Amino acid sequence: MVDVENVKGATWNSDEKHQDNEWQNQNLSAAKRLSLFLLTWGVELRGIHPVTVEDKKETQFNKIFFIWLSANTNILSFSLGTLGPVTFGLGLRDSCLVILFFNLLFAIPPAYFSTWGPKLGLRQLCTTRYTFGYYGVVVPSMLSVFGLIGFAVLNSIVGGQALASAGNVSWTAGIVVVSVISLFISFCGLKVLSWFERVVWIPVVLVFIIAACVSGKHFADAPAALPATASQVLNSGATIAGSTITWATISSDYTTYFHPGVSSWRIFWYSYAGLILPTVALQCLGAAAAITAPVVPAWDAEYAGGNVGGLIDAMLEPVGKFGKVLMVFVSLSVTGNNVPTIYSFGMSLQTFIPPLVVVPRYVFSVVATAVIIPLSIAGQHKLYSALSNFLSIMGYWTGPWAAAVLVEHLYFRKGDFALYDLQSWNVPSKLPLGAAALTASALSFALAIPSMDQVWYEGPIARTTGDIGIELAMAVTALLYIPLRHLEKRWKGV
């Protein structure tokens, strides 16, 4: 049960004390009665309202490790690994090196932003208001909304494929099942989410260990690959980077209830390990399986059309009917990713459309699921093109966003959280204008676009170097933001 007094005003109005009498009023609306009922059963109502110091009571800090661990221990991580050989023509060694080094680099921003939650008590995109301003943050928030839905759709597709491989159900039915399970957990809120993420990774890890043990002998038969070109490496790396850095936009959403006295280094390393360990291991396993599939007829047949669930099912064939049971766990593994994704969808949407702050958080879980299911069903047979294109695009905007927020914090605010006026989190006049951040981010695309290499466009720089659009966009944004922000501060004073 949850202490109603701690959060009773958080959903309906930013001024919690103002709402005391309203909650005690016997003539509450049906919607508020429902929220109060759900609150007494432990359902989290608070959306983007700041978490007060009094409410920051969580001291089980390793919860963030398990959230990131479970969010990345799933079939989607395995699928991302297959892109290196399937889409970019890399061999196993080069695929794994790209996976390792790009993840090591681009996991740093989300791990670092996880440390902000205990210090500020703000959801990640709300902290962005101190860089992009109250109105300027609408742009990254809108992109985050679309991005979170995109990730949930990809999760639901691969989860549906896996569940179909486990039994006599269609991909569509599998999509609906994994989406509804994800809805239930995210609906309940962070307390239930944290419990779920603490355990859901365990059977999934066992399944992939079994798959590797019973079918790993085939990996030695994989055909040798030609030496990788710089273009292949960087194009594949852009996809890996786009997947990993995107977590930065929602990182502090899961640490806002942590006690503010916790060491930032402790949260960083918990987060970094939770991101790196499952991501690198499963992506490398996916690369090995995809490279081997053409020389194992049973694998190749199941993998036809990009059916990743079918590929894993074929790898588990040596264990007989028990393999079908294991495939159920594989299919449900995507819920570990979908649950935090759907949870943060509401935070992004409230930041994107501020009037929605009066709507209880759990409503957005229902809205997100209502969007995810039809989109997943419509796109279920176009996984690979959707996966590679979507993830690369995500990195192009997330990189500049992260660069601007980091420069604001480390350079202009000297890394000091005391320089954030938390009373002004929703007061436009007391927040930066946001022109500097938006302008620097937009201008970075003048160099980033010629450096992109996508199915739909190949820039002149990328033809020579490969895709370095994300890296250049981050560097240019960081450099431009400093003088532009100085001008903005001189003009507005904030």
UniProtKB/TrEMBL annotation:
**Keyword annotations from UniProtKB, A to Z:** Membrane, Transmembrane, Transmembrane helix, Transport
Q: Which GO terms describe its cellular component?
A: plasma membrane
Membrane topology classification: Multi-pass membrane protein
> Which family does this protein fall into?
Belongs to the purine-cytosine permease (2.A.39) family.
Q: What is this protein called?
A: NCS cytosine-purine permease
What Pfam families has UniProt attached to this entry?
A: Transp_cyt_pur (PF02133)
Q: Which organism is it from?
A: Lactarius akahatsu
Main localisation = membrane
InterPro entries of this UniProt entry?
Pur-cyt_permease (IPR001248), Pur-cyt_permease_Fcy2/21/22 (IPR026030)
Q: What is the lineage of its organism?
A: Eukaryota, Fungi, Dikarya, Basidiomycota, Agaricomycotina
Membrane-spanning ranges: 64-83, 95-113, 133-157, 169-193, 199-216, 267-291, 325-346, 358-378, 390-411, 431-449, 461-482
List locations, semicolon-separated: Membrane
The organism sits in which domain of life? Eukaryota
A GO term, aspect molecular function: transmembrane transporter activity
Residues annotated as coiled-coil are none
